[in-house]
Amino acid sequence: MKSDIMTDQTSKLIHDGSEYELPVVRGSENETALDISKLRAKTGLITYDPGYANTGSCKSAITFINGEEGILHYRGYPIEQLAERSTFLETSWLLIHGELPTREELDGFTETITRHTMLHENFRGFFGALPKNAHPMPVTAATVGALSTFYQEAETEESIRQTIVRLLAKFPTIAAWAYKHSIGQPFIYPNNNLDYPSNFLNMMFSTPCEDYEVDPVVARALDMLLILHADHEQNCSTSTVRMVGSSQANLYASISAGISALWGRLHGGANQKVIEMLDAIAERGESAEDFVARAKDRDNPARLMGFGHRVYKNYDPRAKVLKQACTDVVEALGSSSQQLEIAMKLEEIALNDEFFIERRLFPNVDFYSGVIYKAIGIPVNMFTVMFAMGRMSGWIAQWLEMRRDPNFRIGRPRQVYTGPTRRDYVPVDQR
Ligand code: ACO
Question: Would residue 229 show up in a list of annotated catalytic residues for this protein?
Answer without folding.
Answer: no
